[in-house]
Amino acid sequence: MKLELLSKGEQTSQNEIISKLRDLINLKNLEPGDKLPSERMMSEKFEVSRSSVREVIQLLEFYGLLKSKPQSGTFVADIGQIAMNGMIDDILRLENPDFRSLVETRIMFELKTVRLAAQRRTEEHLSQIEGALEAYKEKVLNGENAVQEDLLFHLAIAQASCNSTMNTLMLMITPKIITNFEKYHVCDKNQAYIGIKEHQDIFEAIKNQDTEMAKEKMKVHFGVLYQYCYNI
Predict the structure, then answer these.
(1) SS3 of 207, please?
(2) Cα separation of 163 and 227, whole Å?
(3) CA distance 104 to 106
(4) Report field, pTM of the whole predicted structure over 0.70
(5) Mean pLDDT to the nearest integer, 123-148
(6) Domain covering 99-229: architecture
(7) Largest CA distance in the chain
(8) Domain spans of the chain?
(9) Across the chain, how many H-helices and E-strands are there?
(10) CATH number 1.10.10.10 is the correct assignment for the domain at 8-93
(11) What is the pLDDT of residues 170-216, one digit of tens each?
């Protein structure tokens, strides 16, 4: 499943579909286990594209409000109507995070995921992290932009944490982080060169399964980014 942060206009459109879907569930008095109309029928009823309906279904499925079954359709999850309406109201009130919020959230997650990665990593995980590290090095040493390779390195660490929820949340915020990195020119050349050693130190700590060292090296790595975040 691919979940991305949306622009304000896209988010408004998505919220309208969520509201219409909630009204449909309430109008038909659908209960846990009841089947929703097909994507085609809802797209026609809501006058939106099927892909837009599908994205909303995926989002509500992520929040545990709907369940999709291959070849069967989409069903209301095991949650009462009052609770569902309350959760949907909360979802509709969510705002797209600003860059500072993204950085704070990313740091909070990664200080935890890097410790879990050091504890749980397999040889395959190590290979993936090292591959991302080498790709980052190559781009930096060639004088090229390495923002995406940097984030792939961190996503590989999230995967090595063996925590599917944290991994999913990292995937959700990554596209917006990449956009803002490029917008604010966060990774200049000097910082990118320093980043090679910082990435290497993090990798070695994970390889040695030193959880505290992994956390400390990640803190060092995020030091400049955190300071930058509060100066923009």
Answers:
(1) helix
(2) 28
(3) 5
(4) no
(5) 93
(6) Up-down Bundle (1.20)
(7) 61
(8) 8-93, 99-229
(9) 10, 2
(10) yes
(11) 877 776 676 666 555 455 566 778 889 999 999 999 999 999 999 99
